């Protein structure tokens, strides 16, 4: 079946530090890959996505590259800010078991705290 | 304007009660979803509807029943609530259910069963 393995947290960084959150996946076919972010007390919102191999998604200084050969989609940011403190979810979209619909499968989430 | 809205935001109730959570989206999307997020933040799909038709029905207890009166609304009714149902429930929508689609999430409903 489909699965997403995400770096366990929590992760605590100082402001302006470099961020990497590792994500690897298992899926049949050619999934789309996503990073969603959840700020405290809110729902999830899309951070970035990539829909085919070697695509790079980017948004708000965050980047991730769809690596089919290593089945990975690691999230990076060169200089984090206090406002980046949130829970980050890696996810893939692939066929549901019956083959008639797609579903998102999420990783376990990584709590990031950025200290001033 | 809120894109995906849920009511109520908080729900505290006793074991054995029946409760409903409502979800509405004003994005014109065809597909809507319900997710459950447990205390460790793990998210799992429960149901999905496309144009009012149920297309994903994960292995959840049949005490949970989704209803979609039209493609802008997807409600979740829960019978005979149990302690283990305590969680945050998120509604989401996407344009068409394609794998490349972004899903748009509501703010969540925190259900606490006492």
Question: How are the secondary structure elements laid out?
Answer:
The complex is a heterodimer of chains A (116) and B (114).
Chain A: E1 3-6, E2 11-14, E3 19-21, E4 23-26, E5 32-38, E6 44-50, E7 56-59, E8 62-65, E9 75-77, E10 86-95, E11 102-106, E12 110-115
Parallel strand pairs in A: 2-12
Antiparallel strand pairs in A: 1-4, 3-9, 5-6, 5-10, 7-8, 8-9, 10-11, 10-12
Chain B: E1 4-7, E2 10-13, E3 19-25, E4 31-37, E5 43-50, E6 53-57, E7 64-70, E8 73-78, E9 87-94, E10 104-105, E11 109-113
Parallel strand pairs in B: 2-11
Antiparallel strand pairs in B: 1-3, 3-8, 4-5, 4-9, 5-6, 7-8, 9-10, 9-11
Q: Over all CA atoms, what is the radius of gyration of chain B?
A: 13 Å
Biggest chain-to-chain interface with counts: A-B, 29 and 26 residues
User: What's the order of the H and E elements of chain B?
Assistant: EEEEEEEEEEE
First and last CA, distance of chain B: 34 Å
Query: Which consecutive residue ranges of chain B, at least 5 long each, have pLDDT under 50?
Result: none
What's the main sheet of chain B like? 7 strands, mixed
How many individual helices of chain B?
Answer: 0
Q: What are the segments of chain A in which pLDDT stays under 50 over at least 5 consecutive residues?
A: none
Shape of chain A: globular
Percentage beta strand of chain B: over 45%
Structural class of chain A: mainly beta
What percent strand of chain A? over 45%
Query: Helix content range of the residues of chain A, please?
Result: under 10%
- Look at the structure and give the mean pLDDT of chain A: 92
The helix fraction of chain B, in percent, is under 10%
CA-atom Rg of chain A in angstroms: 14 Å
Overall pLDDT score of chain B: 92
Structural class by secondary-structure content of chain B: mainly beta
């Amino acid at each position: 079946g489909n699965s997403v393995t995400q770096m366990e947290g929590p992760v605590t960084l100082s402001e302006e530090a470099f961020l990497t959150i590792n994500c690897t996946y298992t899926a049949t076919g050619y999934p789309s890959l996503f990073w969603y972010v959840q700020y405290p007390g809110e729902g999830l919102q899309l951070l970035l996505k990539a829909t085919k191999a070697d695509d790079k998604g980017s948004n708000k200084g965050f980047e991730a590259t769809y690596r089919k050969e290593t089945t990975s989609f690691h999230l990076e940011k060169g200089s984090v800010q206090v406002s980046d403190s949130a829970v980050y979810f890696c996810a893939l979209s692939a066929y549901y078991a019956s083959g008639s619909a797609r579903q998102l499968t999420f990783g376990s989430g990584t709590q990031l705290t950025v200290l001033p | 304007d809120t894109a995906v809205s849920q009511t109520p935001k908080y729900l505290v109730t006793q074991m054995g009660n029946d409760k409903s959570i409502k979800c509405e989206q004003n994005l014109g999307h065809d597909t809507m979803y319900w997710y459950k997020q447990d205390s460790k933040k793990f998210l799992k799909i429960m149901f999905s509807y496309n144009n009012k038709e149920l297309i994903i029905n994960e292995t959840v207890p049949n005490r949970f029943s989704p209803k979609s009166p039209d493609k802008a609304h997807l409600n979740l009714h829960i019978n005979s609530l149990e302690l283990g149902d305590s969680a945050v429930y998120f509604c989401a929508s996407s344009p068409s259910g394609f794998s490349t689609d972004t899903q748009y999430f509501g703010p969540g409903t925190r259900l606490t069963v006492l």
